Amino acid sequence: MDVAVYMTELGQQARAAAREIARSATAVRNQALLATAVALNEARAELAQANRKDLESGRANGLDDAMLDRLELTPARIDAMIEGLRQVAALPDPIGEITNMTYRPSGIQVGKMRVPLGVIGIIYESRPNVTVEAASLCLKSGNATILRGGSEAIHSNQAIAACLASGLAEAGLPASAVQVVKTTDRAAVGELITMPQYVDVIVPRGGKGLIERISRDARVPVIKHLDGVCHVYIDSHADPEKALKVAVNAKTHRYGTCNTMETLLVDQEIAEDMLPLLAQEFVARGVELRGCDRTREVLADITPATEDDWHEEYLAPILAVRVVDGLDGAIEHINRYSSQHTDSIITENYTRARRFLTEVDSSSVMVNASTRFADGFEYGLGAEIGISTDKIHARGPVGLEGLTSQKYVVFGDGHIRA
Known about the structure:
By secondary structure, the protein is of the alpha/beta class. The chain is built from 15 helices and 16 strands. The strands form four sheets. It has a seven-stranded parallel β-sheet, with helices on both faces. The radius of gyration is 23 Å and the shape is globular. It starts with a helix and ends in a 7-residue tail after the last strand.
């Protein structure tokens, strides 16, 4: 296969499909989504068989447990994909919405109309459910998409692609509206991110190395986050039972996700009482603790933390723990080491909660809630295309609105400018 020729063909087909999708009726796009949900439900056996091939190959190639967890398509995850499609179909269609219409002194009316971005290229690793999440949001928001999953999930992604093709055909939409790249050749990524004539935006989802490479080499705008160094800060005004529950969930609910807590901060006023309780819960779940000097004064047998630990996204049962000097110390630490993804405070003090929300510069900031809530499904977006820690265009979980833009519309009645 000539990868450059192949990717150019995909780009040309996507550009043509984007025009057709953009003018399609909401009901037609919803029909495609719901038909895909039916196809996924009917193809459970085929999806499981394809996923087994990927898991067997992954184990043979030495993928770690976190990567294998992200790769696995359990029945519950297939259920979640189906539910995600139904939720996206039920969401209001943003396309064509006109807002902020105002009369100007000249007599014209000026407003803004929401429109699709066009063609969205999505590059991701491991998690085959991303194929459905990404396709559904792109389709609902009137965009065509080119999906390039990781080579470790090639069989799973192609099985899902067949379901997507079935859904599009059922609705009478072009199959090229959602194209899953069939080659595992890495050169396909290089082609996809350097085709501004065919691709309007790139969304990378994966490890820091992948996203750094895309950000460095792309000639197409990129919506991204590099890593998820997420914090939970337990304030001296926290409810201890609530703090334990949230901290344990934030770390142990799933280890291999970008919204998993990687650093736990504890106010020095309550460290002596809270740290033993926290350690008992984490050690019972097999989590390795790495603590600062003040943490180790209370928990003497844990591993000393290094400077690198405060920067680390472990994606594993390892947790960095630091005792800080109150809210000021917590905010200072987070704004220095956070990747601006998700950070949470546990406190019963309203004033401190408001300060945390105001002064922590992250795309999601929480009060008395687990960082694991930071995703599009939990935020009511139906699904998400990814998380953005950028500050321009989209920030946080990117759903339908993040995949659109706005253009000015002007209404007149023969008006001319004097």
